[in-house]
Amino acid sequence: MKVGLFIPCYVDQFYPKVAIATLELLEKFGCEVDFPANQTCCGQPMANSGFEHMTQGCNDLFAENFQGFDYIVCPSGSCTLHIKEHLGVPEITTRCYELTEFLTDILKVDTIKVKFPYKVGLHQSCHGQRGLKIAQMSELNAPAFSKIEQLLHQVEGIELVNLDRKDECCGFGGTFCVAEEALSARMGQDRVLDHVKNGTQVLTAADMSCLMHLEGIIRRQKLPIRVMHLAEILNGVEVEELQSQV
Amino acid sequence: MESRARILQAIAQNQPEHQPLPDISTLAVVDYDPREKFIATLEGIGGRVVEISTLEEVKAYITTEFAQTERVISTLEELAPVAEINWLSDDPHTLENVDLFVMRADFGVAENGALWVTQEYMGQRAAPFITQNLAVVLNHSELVPTMHHAYERIGQTDYPFGMFLAGPSKTADIEQSLVLGAHGSRTMTVFLLMSE
Amino acid sequence: MNHSELAEEFIKDADRTTWHDETLWWVRQKRDKAAFQIPEWEALREAASSIKNNVLSNMHDYLVAFEAKATQNGFKIHWAADAEEHNQIVLGIMKDAGITAMIKSKSMLTEECHLNDYLEKNGIDVVDTDLGERIVQLRHEMPSHIVLPAIHLKKEDVGETFHKYLGTEKGNKDPQYLTEAARQHLREKFVTRKAALTGVNFAIAETGEFVVCTNEGNADMGAHLADIHIASMGFEKIIPERKHLGVFLRLLARSATGQPITTYSSHFKSPRPGQQMHIVIVDNGRSRQLGRPEFRSSLKCIRCGACMNTCPVYRRSGGHSYHSAVAGPIGSILAPNLDMTKNADLPFASTLCGSCTNVCPVKIDIHDQLYKWRQVLVQGGHVPFAKTVAMRAMTFTLSHPGVFGFAGKVGRMVMNVAPFMVSNGLNPWYKQREMPAPPEESFREWYSKNRNGESS
Question: Which residue intervals of C98-243 are DSSP H helices?
Fold first, then answer.
């Protein structure tokens, strides 16, 4: 199975460990993974700011880079959703998967030999949840399910925290995070408070953008919460310096 | 071109391709006992339910709960000994001092504790609103499960005015604190007539 | 001031923001409780959405049919192309009857038309009778929520206002006491005023009747005692048949406040003998919205407010930060149609989380429309030019992998060597968040070293 690894631009530049964890995880489950070196960005930040009409260059580059794979996998719900909705090349978009849904729906992973004896607070990233239907949303009167929890429950020793608001937005929202800075920060602070209140030791999500924003707040407030991408937990990355995070 | 023509022309030009109406005949899911649901829901929204066997009990209620000096009106002739029944042609403004109004309802709706009443049941439109306290007599057999059933039952009936009435008037406009008794009646009692 | 400036002001009072957020979240939870008691809830939403889609596609004929039936029923129908004309028609009716004092129940349409101001300037005294509306009227404020007009006010604020204008006890903030005071104050108006204006929740094409839903009974207290009843409606309020009310009345109150139904759902089919009843059908930009394929479904709205209650942005910025009659997510997709310059900020006041779309009882794709309005506004030149320049630079960088890699490397190097260049007061991110720690190498650098250039 040839998998093209699609790494969000900010993950490539600022969170390489998340990309490495994603790569290693896919390889562990038997995928032949290739990272097209000329990829840059899906174009979402521009499109969401109203500049969709300028994203043809990005789209063309993406289509060029990701030709010829069986699947294209990305550790980000929002980037995957954006490509699926806006690239306009069906042979590519129909093969695009966010990491979680790839693991559950395609690889049908049912054993993860990892120990992670911590209280884990799962942040439900909006685009993956409401857009890609990776987990049921609280608004709908419909059966509960969560592909993320399905995977996390396979990890030994993990204890999932019950949050007050299971799927409220973190407030990152792309350029919103600076264009409406006060609101963005306030939303993030409220999310963090929910985790603090309910005992989260490790905060995780399937989207590094949310985590970047929440981690920025956690570190500013000097809170003893570690932030890790889902791929890192599933790949057995050790929790570093939990006590001395401050 | 006058406005009506301009507006209708713009609408005709701008409206999208025809989309058909859905079939709503199978929407209702009834997984409850209508009478139990009706009583529980109505009590939950601030109404009071009193099961009675005859209208005599309503008379007794009126004489015990309301002083001689308080004004009681009704559309039920049977209540003539204890309530005024000849007010139907009066100016509605004269009903301002009514303390209790007793009327009948056509039927009740279990899912939301509402009663369907048309103008002929009200006597006058203002009556159920302007009264301080409202009481409604409902035959226990006249209950439908959902609003879909309700509109089926109403069908094409002609009425100059009708309403679904669910409990006493209320508001939560002050810091989401629920207060019963806004501008309509302060209380609402349903006399559920168990016979007939 | 635009939304982000107004929101920043609002958020300065952190405790009050928490209170506002929690109050509205509680309303969202009440909606959830009500919705989850109905197994067929999602089927109901789908039915309501389809009915409204049918309405949009047959709007002309339904309106003509409604007008004919309503006229037969004894209503006088007026048509208003815009807000100004609506106001003139209402004034005209009042002047013809020689009446100078009116009572009003809740109508967001009349807020949109600024009716109260217009009437006051023309010598008509208007008293709003919905409790929340009366409170904001006394305070000379706009309502901040379409269903809960005074949700931005605490009991103390209401207590102060009533003490000042209604003579209630100073410092008494008991809601029961204050509501009783309002009841007495407004009862006098109901009983003495000769003209009442209401909104319209639903107008039925089949029968020429219309429905008004309230909890307080104020619309009815006005209408059934007045010599003249004026009902103002946006033309999109029309629905095809009486039986469709079954669908909408099951959804409306549950979505709005979590109640199974409002206390009163009043069906007006003909005037009281001797009473004049007027219906004013208003366009004011709605026909233009109807012609926008991507935005026309915003006209399906039944004004429940569920989108506002669920919106994490609305809850933390308040309705007034949207500077429009209708605020929140639905307001942000309606307002640009009314004025693209003034309201260009609104579609950007969102993270596109999608919660609104999924509570909307008529399934308007609100968050998708917010995204689409952004494209329209940018291409229409309503967004600051500096943003366009920045975006052009971004597009260039992201279309050229070499430039991207280099820029990233430089950025990380700067952050490592001279962090104060980035982590300072000029960087909005940095106000309340730490910057991410810059790694030694990017993933692509690691990959080319560790996977021996196995790239395509």
Answer: 108-112, 115-121, 131-138, 155-166, 175-192, 218-223
d(CA C421, CA C274): 78
A touches which chains (3+ CB pairs under 8 A)?
C
**Tell me: the pLDDT tens digits for A54-109?**
889 889 999 999 999 999 999 999 999 999 999 999 999 999 999 999 999 999 99
A173 vs C11, C17, C352: nearest CB: C352
Alpha helices in C36-76 (DSSP H): 41-57, 59-72
Residue A218: C-alpha distances to residues A130, A227, C435 (Å)? 25, 9, 11
Q: Which residues are CB-contacts of C231 (< 8 A; sequence separation ≥ 6)?
A: C197, C198, C199, C200, C210, C212, C268, C277, C278, C279, C280
Asked whether the CA dihedral A88, A90, A94, A95 is positive or negative, the reply is negative
Is residue B113 one of the residues assigned to a domain? Answer: yes
- Cα–Cα distance between B106 and C209 in angstroms, integer? 20
Question: How many angstroms separate the CA of residue C110 from the nearest CA in chain B?
Answer: 18
Alpha-carbon distance of B151 to C43, in angstroms, equals 18
Give a yes or no: residue B10 inside a domain.
no
- SS3 category, B127: helix
Q: Which amino acid type is present at position C263?
A: T
Evaluate whether A120 touches A109 at the Cβ level (below 8 Å): no
Question: Which candidate, C88, C93, C74, C101, places its Cα nearest to that of C194?
Answer: C101
Helix pair angle (C14-35, C3-12), 10° resolution:
100
> How buried is residue B171: exposed, middle or buried, by Cβ count under 10 Å (0-12/13-18/19+)?
buried
Asked whether the beta carbons of C73 and C208 are under 8 A apart, the reply is yes
What six digits make up the tokens of C71?
């006229």
Helices (H) then strands (E): counts for chain A: 13, 8
Residue B48 has φ and ψ, to the nearest 5°, of: -115, 135
> Is residue C119 within 8 Å of C286, Cβ to Cβ?
no
Among chain C residues, the shortest Cα distance to B14 is held by C291
Q: How far is C104 from chain B (nearest CA, A)?
A: 13
Tell me how far CA of residue C426 lies from CA of B76, C420, C421, C431, in angstroms: 76, 10, 9, 9
Map out the domains of chain C with their CATH numbers.
38-284 (3.40.50.10420), 293-379 (1.10.1060.10), 386-450 (no CATH)
CB contact under 8 A, B7 and C283: yes
Number of Cβ pairs closer than 8 Å across B and C? 250
pLDDT > 90? residue C390: no
Q: Which two tokens stand for residue C229?
A: 């009843």
Chain C touched by B74 (CB under 8 Å): no
- Find the residue in A nearest to C409 (Cα): A13
Which tokens is C112 given?
């949109």
b/e for C156-171, b at 16 or more Cβ within 10 A?
Answer: ebbbbbbbeeeebeee
Tell me the domains of chain A and their CATH numbers. 2-106 (3.40.50), 119-245 (3.40.50)
Overall number of domains in chain B: 1
Output the pLDDT for position C402. Answer: 75
What ipTM was assigned to the predicted interfaces of this complex?
Answer: 0.98
For residues B53 and B39, is the Cβ–Cβ distance under 8 A? no
Per-residue pLDDT band at A242 (split at 50, 70, 90): very low
